[in-house]
Backbone:
């Protein structure tokens, strides 16, 4: 039996905030024509407020609950050729990790801590980093999440020094191979 017969042909992007998931998701959408589901954007639309407001008003745990509910809804979809860009902390909940793998080919976009800090330091829409010790917080969170990203991903790409076209090309080539291999 082919991998393609048991795994939906979605491409799922995971990784820490600032790793490029949203931008790479848009590039893959443009190249493949697959619908793009940006989970953070979906949560904001569904909740009617920005993620920073959700964190502030309801807390991280409530946000993670809603994120898991959205993931469960996505996993029920029967059309299976989507690009799914997840939030950076989706791997925190143990039950989310196998769900992500069931959705399709999971790609972990990674970058070094200093690069993540550079990419995220001026963005006020990062509720977990809006504090004086953001650099330390990044290091701690990345170290905590690294084993969960590793457990979940089929492929890891270090995005440092690559443009979005190169990253997307690598993902597409690897996904083609993944979906044609026997289980």
Residues:
């Amino acid at each position: 039996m082919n991998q393609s017969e048991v795994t939906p042909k979605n491409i799922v992007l995971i990784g820490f905030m600032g790793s490029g998931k949203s931008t790479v998701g848009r590039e893959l959408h443009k190249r493949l024509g697959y619908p793009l589901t940006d989970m953070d954007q979906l949560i904001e639309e569904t909740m009617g407020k920005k993620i920073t407001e959700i964190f502030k008003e309801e807390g991280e745990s409530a946000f993670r609950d809603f994120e898991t509910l959205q993931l469960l809804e996505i996993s029920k979809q029967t059309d299976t050729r989507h690009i799914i860009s997840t939030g950076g902390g989706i791997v925190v909940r143990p039950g989310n990790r196998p769900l992500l793998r069931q959705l399709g080919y999971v790609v972990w976009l990674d970058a070094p801590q200093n690069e993540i800090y550079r990419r995220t330091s001026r963005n006020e829409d990062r509720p977990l980093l809006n504090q004086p010790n953001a650099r330390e917080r990044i290091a701690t969170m990345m170290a905590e999440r690294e084993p969960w990203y590793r457990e979940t991903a089929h492929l890891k790409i270090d995005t440092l020094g690559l443009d979005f076209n190169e990253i997307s090309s690598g993902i597409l080539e690897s996904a083609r191979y993944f979906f044609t291999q026997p289980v």
User: Anything to note?
Assistant: Residues 1-5 have pLDDT under 50 and may be disordered. The radius of gyration is 16 Å. The chain has one domain: 3-180. The beta strands are 10-14, 36-38, 83-85, 104-110, 155-158.
